[in-house]
Amino acid sequence: MExxxxxxxxxxMIVSIxxxxxxxxxxxxxxxxxxxxxxxxxxxxxxxxxxxxxxxSFPYAREVxxxxxxxxxxKAMWNGVSDKMRINDFHDLNxxxxxxxxxxxNFPVRIDEVLQKCFGGWKRDGIYDFEKLFPGMxxxxxxxxxxxxxxxxxxxxxxxxxxxxxKKQHPTFMGFGGLDxxxxxxxxxxxxxxxxxxxxxxxRLARDYVPDIVDGKLDRRQRxxxxxxxxxxxxxxxxxxxxxxxxxxxWLNTGHDLxxxxxxxxxxxxECGSVAAPYxxxxxxxxxxxxxxxxxxxxxxxxxxxxxxxxxxxxxPEVESFMYWPQPAWPNRKPYYGISRSLLKRSMAYGMxxxxxxxxxxxxxxxxxxLKGDGTKDVELSENGKDLDAIFAWAHRHDRGTVYxxxxxLASIDESLNRQFYDGxxxxxxxxxxxxxFLFTLTPTKxxxxxxxxxxxxxxxxxxxxxxxxxxxxxxxxxxxxxxTDVLLKVLKGYKAAFLVGSFDKxxxxxxxxxxxxxxxxxxxxxxxxxxxxxxxxxxxxxTFSGEKVKGTGAVAGGHTLYTGTATTAxxxxxxxxxxxxxxxxxxxxGRVVTVAIKKMLPDSVLENPREGWFDGKLRKIxxxxxxxxxxxxxxxxxQRETMPVCVDGDIxxxxxxxxxxxLVWLLNNNGxxxxxGEPEVLDPAATSAVKILHKKSGKVYTATVTAGDWxxxxxxx
Length: 718
Description:
Blueprint: H1 5-20, E1 53-56, H2 58-67, E2 77-83, H3 111-119, H4 121-133, E3 139-143, H5 160-169, E4 173-179, H6 190-195, H7 199-208, E5 213-214, E6 217-218, H8 222-237, E7 244-248, H9 254-261, E8 265-271, H10 279-293, E9 296-302, H11 341-353, E10 358-361, E11 369-371, E12 379-381, H12 383-397, E13 402-403, E14 407-410, H13 432-442, E15 448-450, E16 453-455, E17 474-477, H14 485-492, E18 497-500, H15 511-519, E19 523-527, H16 529-532, H17 538-541, E20 543-551, H18 554-557, E21 561-567, E22 571-575, E23 581-588, E24 591-596, H19 604-607, H20 614-623, H21 630-643, E25 646-649, E26 653-658, E27 662-668, E28 673-674, E29 682-683, E30 689-695, E31 701-706, E32 711-717
Parallel strand pairs: 1-2, 1-10, 2-3, 3-4, 4-7, 7-8, 8-9, 9-10, 14-17, 14-18, 18-19, 19-24
Antiparallel strand pairs: 5-6, 11-12, 13-26, 15-16, 20-21, 22-23, 23-24, 25-30, 26-27, 27-32, 28-29, 30-31
């Protein structure tokens, strides 16, 4: 709520420093652009007249949906139906002889025949019943973990004419889930290819996916070439359809790869508990991919509950599964296993706020409803169903706006960067340390590094979502993602500032677009090694480096090696306690290049032998907050302060969305939640977060109180 003038006086002493740090039009600002404009292509796309859907499998959840069809979450439904697609039943032009145990002779293959044979009559009929019962709502068809593209042949004898006629009869059909859990599929990406042990599978991969070796090393572009091959295979499998949905989860930049290859919709999967890296990393990469390639954006939460324990620190087979309530079909399911109620609630709210077109819960049919517990088979909404309905009820009444992310996180599309920071068997990320420095600063974790996760299950802490001083301020953009310079420049110009992070191959990176971005008003941050290595010229940076170096001093630069620069046209920026420049700012055209005089902007403890003892050594300390990145944090704080229309003070996760009337600040409190298996979550009242929000344009201060595990919004009119 907005504070009155009288109550504002009471907190002025607390807020005064806060306000002073947020002044606009300061001549000492680091970022050149001070407007809060957003490009038109950032706005959430409309699908059949709506911007947000609940994607659920209608045939599975039919009983609950029909009983509670007046709920908000069922007012905008997307029927996403999938099942095993038995690919051996589809005639392959290269292999005309079919297995004897699977005769199927009615060729070419027609879609309705496939649905009848693979899905079964009840599920096939559910597709058409949905069209009648919920006219104007979209539906899509997919395969569930059984048609990885590497298993497919290149050609199938599909009845294309029949399929095109079928599409005309079903105008709300959105396409196929053609690359389901793409980065999980064996052979779908380099890590699993290298670790494959099945001899038959290994032989298939060796035959169909011959690696390109350049100078004795696997070419950096290999992964995207294989994605192109897999996308073409998937299209052939799905009657030549172009509208394919690509679902991915672990490898952060796979969304960019799928969008680049041609998927019309990309769907980000977040997982609760099994691999509990911060959702914010995946969110920034997923939203960035959708914006960079102008695609639809889906958000999908899997409630697999690996690594959850009871109070004795033990797991059971029931825990190694999905979270379900007792259902008519599964009356013996035990409640309160797996993740907490509030984690799923916050996850779905987060997906809604960051701009998803569709929200999905894996196994959602077992979550939104439950048995009443009165001995009958009567069903009621579960706690999770009520939470989800509340999110959609809010979305129907309010303008959620468009996420305002003024910072471009420039990462290579060829970096096999996964959210768990594995080494990747030698074919992973070339510069994990740089990405760790930025991502763990933007979202600091507070758990132990246990079983490859960032959580603390023995103490009932689940991970996945953490509070941070930094808001949802950045999108991941790949400047080597095979776009024309003009297209990439249009993408980049939506951002006030950009940080170049990690390893790139200059031959495939659009340097021209990056340089034009600066000349046209952007502020670019680069580490000095990009100048010393010739990635950018000294003329572009306005400073040269001879290789001389000194140890940095002070709260920001201490623990870092500073390289001595000779400024030509740049000016020193941010001196350490000894007066040595930490960075150099060079004005070019309407923009600016800020060269940080530290290799990769990393402290020496991480920079030295970055792969030595990485996972059990450096990463463990980073996860626990024992290694911090003060230089990265310093410049991110400056950029956030200068480019955001609000300043947010409080222990909270937050973002700022631009609405038709002004701004919406959304708040998620991830603190104070304890969850053990077989028990409901426990919320700590002491973890309630008091938040102050300064609207810089008006000078008004807004306050909000967000209890543990909950979410709130503050709407600001201009």
